[in-house]
Specification:
With 698 residues, this protein is an alpha/beta fold. The protein has 4 domains: 5-56 and 172-231, no CATH class; 62-158, OB fold (Dihydrolipoamide Acetyltransferase, E2P); 263-448, 3-Layer(aba) Sandwich (Rossmann fold), CATH 3.40.50; 459-617, Rossmann fold (3-Layer(aba) Sandwich). 41% of the residues lie in helices and 18% in strands. It is built from 25 helices and 23 strands. The longest helix is centred in the middle third of the chain and has 32 residues, at 220-251. The two termini are 51 Å apart. Bound molecules: adenosine-5'-diphosphate and magnesium ion. The site of magnesium ion has 4 residues, from α11.
């Protein structure tokens, strides 16, 4: 059929009926090039764009007279161009545009660097708005490189202006224009995900108003209303999603596990479990015997002995005639779990297999055959456990170690290898207690709040680079006493690209070996090494074949070398507190007094305060709380860490009252309408937010 007139209105309509998943490049005024820049900020779709909230705002509503300008203060003035702009070439790559502007109170000299086009666009006799830092006094007032806009065409002056988090290649102006386009494109298609009666009974503004004013607030009051509405929405959807997950799980029934005599397991251990470990095991066993699938998070500080809790659960499961699997995030850890657990469990009649990415094809074939035939009871491994062709005969329990390292889909995939297996997620990222309930609202939580006896707290020091020689001398003394050392090396990058970790680690290790410790054995490991190489290095280190191990944060997670008595972290300021705590957890695992030395030349006050926290406490929960306070929940609860939809605008620290309201509203709604049949927009958004997380948490 030809392309005739009558088709055109039809096409037009289709075009304007974009939806929120439309790629930003199709939005009027954006296009492929800007879309590419926006992608760097994680903005792909129209929804991403309007949901990219400002970090803060600048109130540029008030317009000053020139005579009122204070030296050093940022302000907005309206002034007329008094003489044609001049351009002078200062030096290579540096052009200067100068122009004089006036109002009835005074004269302002304005300069711009490398913006020569302004010479022609600033017209003598016209009035412009300037926003910038004023300098000088009545005798001579100036502004360098202000924002300048013609009267009546103001975007970044004369109003409350959003300030977005940016990346190279995207300016505030480009971004706020894109958001403007996005909001316009949304005009008729933005569904209100809050049911009307919820919105009204909680005095919340409409969705269009909220999005408009969170980006371009008309007033402070409008901004407050917008923020309150969006935060409420976030907490409300989050709660509805969690409640529904739990509902769904509670309706599944599985054959309850039978009571098992655990004595042989406990007797086989080289130590007695702590009270906290015992309690966690009992909680898990009760779950597995309940007839509903267990969905439990076991939280315990580094070194609290989570592995043995997992092993007890595995024993219980296998003695019930079912298979169990334990997935670790790295090859090193998987192997370590295997080496640690297999001898113990084999003695108890449990047939263990190891499956990782570097398992040779032939062996992998044999292992998978045993698993699918039920000739192996317990599979330990990495994500290889979920690869295609790995099937289980009757998987009954899935344990994931250090859960925040896994993508949400990976955990789900392992659970999908069985029919509603019990799941136990082990995490060493302590979540402040007050928040665990919200974040893991749909998981049951066990907390190991006790360390095995005899542990000496790791002594921690924060020092500047000037102390490096003394630190080296101290390390030498420790090695002399037979101890081993970790050094987490600095990652220096020339630009903001990813640093080359291979180069950084290799060079640092070589320098250390050649110039500082020629007589000691220095080895190194980094993430770019093949799994086999990494393994070989770690195994050798664990066997005492090296004195010092230089590495990146690949050692962060779970590695257990009891003889290691010190960890040195270079550029410590680059790490979050929780991460430093994890790193520190690599030492102090044996009976020796251990040390953690944080080296940083950063003099920023906040950085120093952060590092100081590390020297003051070894309590993971307190550190997590500090981290939360210092970094804010945005970072702390990033999607990556807990696999749940992130909260972008609600502040869990401050919005507790709002959270309570949102939870009540969610509960009331689900009571009235458990299937959300009457509010499809709510149901749709919840499903969207939880699509990936849903399977995982079930
Ligand atoms: P994490 O919770 O960090 O995973 P691990 O399970 O690796 O901790 O345990 C840390 C160390 O403590 C291991 O060497 C382990 O054998 C030991 N351990 C665990 N439980 C006990 C206990 N009850 N008594 C003594 N040592 C224990
Ligand atoms: Mg562990």
């Amino acid at each position: 059929m030809g392309y005739n007139q009558t088709n055109v209105p039809h096409l037009e309509r289709r075009r304007s009926m974009a939806d929120l998943t439309t790629s930003v490049q199709f939005i009027k005024g954006i296009g492929p090039q800007k879309a590419k820049a926006l992608e760097k900020l994680g903005i792909l779709t129209l929804r991403d764009l309007i949901g990219y909230f400002p970090r803060r705002y600048e109130d540029r509503r008030e317009t000053r007279r020139i005579a009122q300008l204070q030296d050093g203060e940022s302000a907005c003035v309206a002034a007329m161009i008094a003489s044609p702009p001049t351009v002078s070439h200062i030096r290579k790559g540096m052009d200067l545009v100068k122009v004089r502007a006036v109002d009835e109170t005074g004269v302002l000299d304005v300069t711009f660097f490398n913006q020569t086009w302004l010479k022609n666009s600033l017209v003598q006799g016209e009035t412009y708005y300037f926003y910038g830092k004023a300098e000088g006094t009545a005798r001579r007032r100036q502004m360098a490189s202000p924002v300048v806009e013609a009267e009546g065409r103001q975007e970044r002056t004369g109003r409350i202006v959003p300030v977005y988090p940016l990346t190279a290649g995207v300016s505030q102006l480009v971004l706020s224009r894109a958001v403007r386009q996005g909001l316009d494109a949304c005009a008729d298609i933005l569904p209100d995900v809050l049911p009307d009666e919820v919105r009204q009974s909680h005095h919340l503004c409409r969705t269009e108003y909220a999005y408009e004013n969170i980006h371009f607030p008309e007033s402070e009051e409008a901004l407050d209303l917008a923020r309150r509405r969006l935060a409420f929405e976030e907490l409300f959807l989050f709660t509805v999603g969690l409640r529904r997950l739990r509902q769904r799980r509670e309706t599944v029934s599985v054959v309850p596990f039978q009571k098992v005599d655990m004595a042989p397991f406990y007797d086989a251990l080289p130590f007695t479990l702590t009270g906290a470990q015992r309690r966690c095991v009992e909680e898990a066993i009760t779950d597995m015997a309940s007839g509903a699938p267990m969905n439990r998070l076991c939280q315990g500080d580094v070194g609290s002995g989570k592995t043995m809790v997992a092993a007890a659960c595995v024993y219980f499961c296998v003695k019930n005639g079912r298979q169990a699997a334990l997935m670790a995030p790295t090859e090193i850890l998987a192997r370590q779990h295997f080496t640690g657990l297999a001898p113990l469990l084999e003695k108890l009649g449990i047939r263990c297999v190891l499956l990782t990415g570097s398992t040779p094809a032939r062996e992998k074939k044999a292992v998978t055959a045993r698993l699918s035939a039920g000739e192996a009871d317990f599979a330990i491994g990495t994500h290889a456990l979920i690869s295609q062709g790995v099937d289980y005969q009757n998987l009954g329990l899935v344990v994931t170690d250090e859960q925040h390292r896994f993508g949400v889909g990976q955990r789900a995939a392992l659970a999908a290898k069985g029919s509603h297996p019990h799941t136990l997620v082990m995490s060493a990222t302590p979540i402040p207690r007050t928040l665990a309930l919200i974040l893991y609202g749909d998981l049951d939580v066990s907390i190991i709040d006790q360390l095995p006896p005899g542990r000496k707290p790791v002594e921690t020091f924060a020092v500047s680079g000037g102390y490096r020689q003394r630190v080296y001398a101290f390390l030498r003394k420790l090695v002399g006493e037979g101890r081993q050392i970790y050094v987490v090396c600095p990652m220096v990058s020339e630009n903001d690209d990813l640093p080359d970790e291979r180069k950084a680690v290799t060079e640092y290790a070589q320098t250390l070996q050649r110039e500082v410790f020629p007589d000691l054995r220095v080895s190194f490991v980094h993430g770019k090494m093949k799994a086999k190489e990494k393994d070989a290095v770690m195994t050798a280190f664990a066997a005492g074949e090296a004195d010092i191990l230089v590495s990146t944060t690949v050692i962060e997670v779970g590695v257990d070398v009891p003889n290691a008595a010190a960890i040195v972290v270079e550029n410590a300021e680059r790490f979050g507190l929780s991460q430093l705590h994890q790193l520190r957890g690599r030492v102090g695992r044996g009976s020796h007094q251990s040390y953690c030395i944080l080296i940083s030349d950063n003099r920023n006050e906040e950085t120093r305060a952060r590092l100081k926290v590390m020297t003051k406490t070894t309590d993971g929960f307190r550190i997590a709380e500090e981290d939360l306070r210092l970094r804010g929940p945005g970072d702390f609860f990033g999607v990556r860490q807990h696999g749940l939809p992130g909260l972008k605008i609600a502040d869990l620290g401050c919005d507790t009252q709002l959270l309570r309201e949102a939870q009540e509203a969610a509960d009331a709604l689900l009571e009235r309408d458990p299937d959300l049949a009457g509010c499809p927009a709510t149901a749709g958004r919840v499903t969207e937010l939880f699509t990936q997380a849903a399977d995982t948490l079930n």
